[in-house]
Amino acid sequence: MMKPLLFFIKKLACYKKELAAGILLSLLLAASSIGLLALSGWFISSAAFFGLTAASAISFNYFIPAATIRFFALLRILSRYFDRVINHDFTFKILSTLRLWFYEKLIPQAPANLISHRSGDLLNGIINDINTLDQLYLNILSPIIVTVFLLISVTVFIAQFTITLALWLLIMLLTTIVVMLLLVLKRSEIIGGKIQIKTAELRIKTIDFLQGFVDLLLFTKKEKRLAAIFETNEALLSDQKALAKLKGITLGGMQFFSGMTVLLTLLIGIPLVRNHIVTGAILTMIILLIIATFEQLLALPLAFLSLGKTKQAANRLLNMAESKPAIIFSNTPKIITQFDIALNQVSFSYPNQKIPTLKNISLTIPMKTQLGIIGPSGIGKTTLIQLLARIWDPTKGEITIDGINLKNISESVLRKTITLVTQQVHIFNTSVRNNLTLMQKNISNDLLFSVLEKLELAELVHSFSEGLDTEMGEFGRNFSGGQIRRIAIARGILQNTPVLILDEPSTGLEAALMQRIWKNCEVDFKHKTVIIATHDEKLLSLLKKTHTLHNQY
């Protein structure tokens, strides 16, 4: 179960300098805090002892300990400041790296592997699970390393004055850690894991509820779904209360062991003072050092309280990210010169679907053909064109272009050969230009407006004060569904690939407008293969060839 955590710990290795600097500053902060309190106790006690007589007061060296106290105070301030700056900056870098890694892992899996995950599950992974992993360094690794350092350094320091108290303190510190771990570790792992699962479940249910609100309202299922959301929320709150209670018990336990250690240290130390093994000032310093050390150790049980949630988050992310992609592209580049497409006895079934969506489809599409794919809703038109773009692989049969099986064509070559414009159009939160070009370079404004003119969007874009640099998306200018559809078609044309596939391009567009667009683009379409899945009879009448999908059962 620790394997997922070890995987993400290795991810931190690319930030060796930041990791070393952050841990060093945490150590300096802990050391300066302990040193300040311990030295202050020794200084005050020694000053009181030496001040009993005029002769001893004169011989007391005031300046060195006073300067050292000021040094520790200044070191504590600086180390705390830079600890916050560097460690928080390091945390943001970790989050950025993990999000990029997760996104890069998801892309090859889309959509085949992702179809089994609901949108809320993916969103939870990108946001909540990755945010939870920032605790791996700040709340788990760093406190453990600091604790080990403190155990060694404090024991060695006290041993310079008395081996007895050094061994006693080491025993008490180790006992405290072991008892707290036995108290916290297993229970917090269970509760923390449940919290992470419940948080994901609540996010998924809430997103599903919002996305399907109209349907739930129409079918009078809104109250039932709301009740399920509230039930999950109550279960989450219950687990969070249990974890908070465990945290309170843990902190109370640490205070108890701290008090017991101080009390028993006094009982052991007083005879040592009487026997002149240590001075009263040294014993005072050791007592305050113990108090300060236990304060620093408070972070350790809290680290293990976070362990359950962190392990669950790491496990969930790895399960999603490390799934084997359903579509694996060839690394051998193939040169395609002819763009004739052939489907040979192609069948396809979606995952966990017993009845094939497509069965024994054979079809030849010569280069520069304008083909319409027709058939009743649900017959598999969208599935067929997704197979052509290799979004999915056929369950049986093969699809070739220029006689080469699509499975033997690299992804870069395939994407430069075939462009698919889907029904679901995504508008990015960026400019009109970037939404059209999809970050392609060397596309001039003249070319962009030429394509927009054919889609009857040029006048609209010219009317914007910022023109092509007008922001689109959630925080930009609103576009109608038909305008967004035309933006998508323009994207496809601007990709300038030999094969252009359009899925229901006339959705949201008036028939007359779609006919004008087709005629405007006719010259462009003559030089490429255009495949359109549509119900639009008027659009079909403009195509030279059609293929009808029939129910095979």
Topology, please?
Blueprint: H1 3-11, H2 16-50, H3 54-59, H4 63-106, H5 119-132, H6 135-159, H7 163-211, H8 213-218, H9 222-274, H10 280-297, H11 299-321, E1 341-348, E2 358-365, E3 370-374, H12 381-388, E4 396-401, E5 404-405, H13 411-417, E6 418-421, H14 432-437, H15 445-454, H16 458-463, H17 481-495, E7 499-503, H18 511-526, E8 529-533, H19 537-540, E9 545-548
Parallel strand pairs: 3-8, 3-9, 6-7, 7-8
Antiparallel strand pairs: 1-2, 1-4, 4-5
Helix pairs in contact: 2-4, 2-6, 2-10, 4-5, 5-7, 5-11, 6-7, 6-10, 6-11, 7-9, 7-11, 9-10
Short overview:
The chain is α/β, with parallel strands linked by helices. It contains 19 helices and nine strands.
How much β-strand is present in the residues? 5-15%
Please identify the structural class as seen in this structure: alpha/beta
> Considering the protein shown, what is the CATH homologous superfamily of the largest domain?
ABC transporter type 1, transmembrane domain
CATH class of the largest domain: Mainly Alpha
Task: Tell me which CATH architecture of the largest domain applies here.
Answer: Up-down Bundle
Average pLDDT figure: 87
Q: CATH topology of the largest domain, anyone? A: ABC transporter transmembrane region fold
Overall, the morphology is elongated
Distance between the termini: 48 Å
The count of helical stretches stands at 19
Rg is 34 Å
Quaternary organization: single chain
How many discrete domains?
A: 2
Helix content, binned percent: 55-70%
What letter string, H or E per element, gives the SSE order? HHHHHHHHHHHEEEHEEHEHHHHEHEHE
* Main sheet: strand order: 6-7-8-3-9
- Main β-sheet, in a few words? 5 strands, parallel
Task: List the uncertain runs.
Answer: none
Tally of extended strands?
9
